[in-house]
Every structure is written in C-alpha cells, then in structure tokens.
Amino acid sequence: MKYTREEARIKATQYAYEIRHGRHTEPKEHVSFKEWFLNGVRKYESMGVEFDFLTAGLVRMTKNEKSVLRTVQNFKDEYESQFPAATKVKLEECAGIA
Question: Is residue 20 situated within a structural domain?
Fold first, then answer.
C-alpha cells in the first residue's frame, strides 16, 4: 500500500506518539522483593557502600563516613513504586482472586 505524503506524515506522527507513551516498550520483569533487595545490595556494595543490618527492620548504609539509616519498609515502598504490577499480582493471589 502506498501512502500519500500527508498520510505518511500522519502515520509517522502516530507511531512516534505510541513510542513516547509506552506502547512499544517491553514490560518490566517481575522479581520478588527479596531478589530485588539482594541485587540492590550487591550493586551498591560494588560501588563501595557498606551495609550494616542493625535490627530486623533497620539498615545502615555507609560510604565515605556518611551514613544513612533506612527501614525495610522504605525499601518495600521503593520496590512497590518500581514494580506496581508485581505487588498487585501478589495481593490478588493472597485474596484468592487469581
């Protein structure tokens, strides 16, 4: 099928819109919180950050004598913001919907 110049321009504009708005992107791979957390710890340890697990829910991260305290709930919130579909699937499984 041959397009006129105007039809080709419209088609290109529509395709660019689809790319910008995520139609042609691959969905994020669903990883469990435990895997995501361990991968993050390994990544930041390779960058020189030291992790100290103070209590069951508290983590101290230290780099260049600067420390940051974070709770496990902070990490879970960050995980849920990156993988909202993964947490939705788990909630549905728990509720017996899926």
Answer: no
Helix (H, G, I), strand (E, B) or coil at 12: helix
Q: What is the pTM of this model?
A: 0.57
Q: Which domain holds residue 77?
A: 28-95
Query: 27-64, pLDDT tens digit by residue?
Result: 667 788 889 889 989 999 998 999 999 988 898 999 88
Structural domain contains residue 69:
yes
Question: What torsion, rounded to 10 degrees, do the Cα atoms 31, 33, 74, 69 define?
Answer: -110
Residue 3 zone, left/alpha/beta (φ > 0; ψ -120 to 50; rest) = beta
